[in-house]
Amino acid sequence: KHRNAVLRKSNIYGGLHLPLIGRALHLIGSNSENSIQRIRQVVEEQGKTFYSWVLHQLVIFCADPKILETLLSSTVHITKNNVYDMLSLWLGDGLLLSTGKKWHTRRKIITPSFHFKILEEFVEIFDRQTNIMIEKLKKEVKKDPQSPVDMFPLVCLTALDIIAETAMGVQVNAQLNPDIGYVKSVKIVTQIISKRLRTPLWRTDGLFKIFAPFVYRQMMKNINEMQEFTKSVIEARRQKLEALIAENNGMDVKESNADNDDVEKIGSKKHMALLDILLRATVEGKPLSNEDIREEVETFMFEGHDTTTSGTSFALYLISRHPEVQKKIVGEISEVLGDDITHMPTYKELQNLRYMECVIKESMRLYPAVPIIGRYFEEDTDLNGVTIPGNCHFNIPLFVVFRDPEYFKEPNEFKPERFYDEKPEDIFPFAYTPFSAGPRNCIGQRYAMLEMKSVISKILRHYELLPLGPEVVPSLSLILRSTTGMQMGLKPRNIVTSL
Ligand code: HEM
């Protein structure tokens, strides 16, 4: 009653609701493809903020950048809503899901892992792993140069190899052995989570166990397998670190180093950045336990590969459909990286691919890798003059916000130039937040941009992308995908090498 009164007072509308069950029936027939269209349509009909009762749960959708400015800038409203609960069996209470003091402490510990000195080191890993993809592509294209290739699975395995090596320091060889245990488990679990999001009866762990006992057992088996693997990597690295400290007469390597730049030292420790930082961290004088570290490492494994896969493959798809954009990027690549294809780009050079950055930004505007973010409000809360009732699950459909005609001219057109400095189009910062914004923004955003630039530039140096195969059909999940894959043709370029 109270929540309905607040909604009325705030002029938030919800359309037709049935007694007791609310809009639960609307979920029938809604799937990951039509949900995008349905939510866009409701925004057109009822305004940028609307509510939905699903049984006893109040869900608000808000696509108003002015309200988002207040919410995302806040250091208080950082608790996630129940959609994220589906990840907790895998990710525990890691950085993505935690809240309050635990989140603050962990965020402080993990932030140095993304220092530019460390990112500089990762460039070699991005390049080496993408070379493996290029070798695989050569075989694929040779079979039939006219047939389209679905780039999604290839990019996904590359991204998985990259995140495993940069976060844990291990080579899981996903691209060469996609069927080995850990790699297969990551794939199965991400697919099941994606399906849970689309299946209302699988939402809570309790319902999931009852209505899909077999899938639940399959998920738990694969989560256990991943956890065993991650635990063994952490344990092995802890032992190595302890041995190293013992060798140094009880002093950590970073302490024994004359120069006091921790980051420099960690950065030079052979790509072990995240795990090393976590192993060395102490909270109130105590080191983090293996379980504390595990949940953070798993969080990176999830957030750090599915997202960049989506970002990279939608960008490749759009480039394949816009030859004039492709021509411009290839020109920039040649100017910044040179024409010798064996030259490995440096961190600085990747940063200087400015037009490519605009292409990636524009591609994430049309197809945001993280399409929805959510918060939970325990109490009535004022956001930019609108009161949101307490006990409410709040959702921000970024895929609606980023195409708002009030903020973007020709919102459905692919126009990378709108982000180009020389032709600035005044973009309100909270109308475009693919990495979220404020204190709870994406900690890996610079890493992500660097990786996407590295992978895309390498593919474009070897291949011209052609508009072949079906168009994308975006499907809504925790991470945006396409039900038709990311299809395109690949025509080998005339390559210059110094070898
Ligand atoms: C295209 C690539 C990426 C996109 C679009 C993206 C987007 C986002 C967004 C929107 C959030 C906020 C989520 C929320 O509020 O619920 C987020 C959080 C996060 N991202 Fe990313 N992300 C990307 C890549 C990465 C990578 C590569 C990593 C790690 C290497 C990463 C690690 C994280 C973590 C740990 C959080 C939680 C941060 C916190 O709550 O303090 N992300 N990301």
Topology:
Blueprint: H1 2-9, H2 34-46, E1 49-54, E2 57-62, H3 65-73, H4 88-91, H5 100-110, H6 116-143, E3 149-150, H7 151-168, H8 181-198, H9 205-211, H10 213-247, H11 253-256, H12 262-267, H13 273-280, E4 282-283, E5 286-287, H14 290-303, H15 306-321, H16 323-337, H17 347-351, H18 354-366, E6 372-377, E7 381-383, E8 386-388, E9 392-397, H19 398-401, H20 445-462, E10 463-466, E11 474-475, E12 481-482, E13 487-492
Parallel strand pairs: 2-9
Antiparallel strand pairs: 1-2, 3-13, 4-5, 6-9, 7-8, 10-13, 11-12
Bound molecules: protoporphyrin IX containing FE.
N- to C-terminal separation?
74 Å
**Which range best describes the helical content: under 10%, 10-25%, 25-40%, 40-55%, 55-70% or over 70%?**
40-55%
How much of the sequence is in beta strands? Answer: 5-15%
Question: What is the average per-residue confidence, as pLDDT, rounded to a whole number?
Answer: 87
Note the total helix count: 20
Give the distinct bound molecules.
Answer: protoporphyrin IX containing FE
Structural class: alpha+beta
- C-alpha Rg (nearest Å): 23 Å
Strand order of the largest sheet: 1-2-9-6
Task: Report the principal-axis shape.
Answer: globular
What ranges have pLDDT less than 50 throughout 5 or more consecutive residues?
Answer: 255-269
Instruction: Characterize the main sheet.
Output: 4 strands, mixed
Protein name: Cytochrome P450
Subcellular location: Endoplasmic reticulum membrane; Microsome membrane
Binding site for heme: 442
Keywords: Endoplasmic reticulum, Heme, Iron, Metal-binding, Microsome, Monooxygenase, Oxidoreductase, Signal
